[in-house]
Specification:
eight-stranded antiparallel sheet; 26 strands; 44% strand; 368 residues; alpha+beta; 6 helices; elongated
């Protein structure tokens, strides 16, 4: 392999794939990035056998070929190299890199040992705007479980149906559901995508600003997200997602309509004191607005008054401050609705204008 490529293109390509560089494995080749020069392009790939990322960048190809080199080393070398062009030539499992002022030899591993990342783009389910999908992922991913105690909860549930796509996540303490209008979808399909894969989609979509669309493809046990010239392929989580619809409240006894910024400030204030305990804050729905309190036995206590238009019964309910802040920090509308029934039932937080997104949070049981 012998090519020449601009530092800018090479750095962008390597940075896309090297975050997924196999640090969780002891198989040496999975810590490498795969480089293949072919048809006037340089293809870069990395995988940890669970998630595979590939991307392509334009290059002047003098001779085709492939090699693999340590992902971290080549990434750092290219990022630190501010020359305009870099030449790459492989020989006997060593990659020689040369630019105007810098030169290096990096020893690699036989590319034949690198696992092939499947191309499942032919099984395309939908193509949608990047902004719509990444927004939906950001709103839902906050509710994913952070451990693997119940694997089906450590990912985002995708449910395709006629002209729509639902994204759902829950860790059993809160639940987020987002509905996306998807004209043209005419298939019934559902699967669970690992949270790490979703984080990679957000990262790569954010770094490929020119990609206006994301194509989603899936087989029985794998899913693919194609973003511009990059592709993420991941294993799916096996198992059935819980029947979450049954826990979504259909009516409420109390509702508060208030400013998002006001609520964020009050919850952050209460969270300062809640850190000493179980992150427990109490929210009282009163005629004049919300009263948010928190108590730390060894430090002190806090009380905040949040102006709100409150309708319904007067009720006090306890929540985990972090779970409340997580949703407030992804909402974009200036007004928010907070709806509850009683101290033992889940509450709902959502944007005033949004009818396609809901966030449900379970209350905490506290001693009176």
């Amino acid at each position: 392999m012998k090519i020449s490529c601009t530092q800018e293109k090479l750095n962008r390509g390597v940075s896309i794939v090297t975050r997924n560089d196999g640090n969780r494995t002891t198989l040496p080749v999975l810590s490498n990035v795969y480089l293949e020069a072919k048809d006037g392009e340089l293809k870069l790939s990395a995988t940890d056998l669970e998630i595979g990322v590939t991307t392509k960048v334009g290059a002047k190809v003098d001779s085709e070929g492939a090699t693999t080199v340590p992902a971290r080393l080549i990434s750092e070398f290219i990022a630190a190299n501010n020359d305009e062009n870099i030449e790459l030539e492989s020989s006997d499992l060593t990659l020689h890199l040369k630019s105007a002022r810098y030169e290096a030899n990096i020893k690699g591993i036989d590319p034949a040992e690198f696992p092939q990342i499947p191309d499942i783009a032919k099984d395309s389910l939908i193509e949608m705007t990047t902004s719509d999908l990444t927004r939906a992922i950001s709103e839902v991913i906050i509710a994913c479980a952070t451990d693997d105690t119940r694997p089906v909860l450590s990912g985002i549930y995708f449910k395709f149906s006629k002209d729509s796509l639902h994204l759902v996540a829950t860790d059993s303490y809160r639940l987020a559901e987002k509905k996306i209008e998807a004209p043209g979808v005419d298939v019934e399909k559902e699967f669970i995508v690992p949270v790490r894969t979703m984080q990679e989609v957000l990262r790569i979509a954010g770094s490929v600003e020119s990609a206006k669309k994301i194509a989603i493809s899936a087989t029985e046990n794998q899913v693919s997200f194609a973003i511009g010239g990059s592709q993420i392929v991941s294993r799916l989580i096996e198992g059935a997602f819980p029947n979450y619809k049954q826990i979504i409240p259909t009516s409420f006894r109390s509702k508060a309509d208030l400013e998002l910024g006001e609520l964020i400030s009050a919850v952050k204030m209460a969270a300062l004191f809640a850190r000493q305990g179980a992150n427990n804050i109490k929210i009282k729905f009163a005629p004049a607005g919300l009263v948010i309190t928190s108590v730390a036995d060894q430090i002190g206590d806090n009380i905040s008054h949040v102006p709100a238009q409150v309708t319904g019964d007067e009720v006090e309910i306890a929540f985990n401050a972090k779970y409340v802040l997580d949703i407030l920090q992804v909402l974009t509308d200036k007004k928010v609705l907070f709806e509850v029934n009683d101290k033992a039932s889940p509450g709902v937080i959502k944007s005033e204008k949004s009818k396609d997104y809901v966030y449900i949070i379970m209350p905490l049981r506290v001693e009176e």
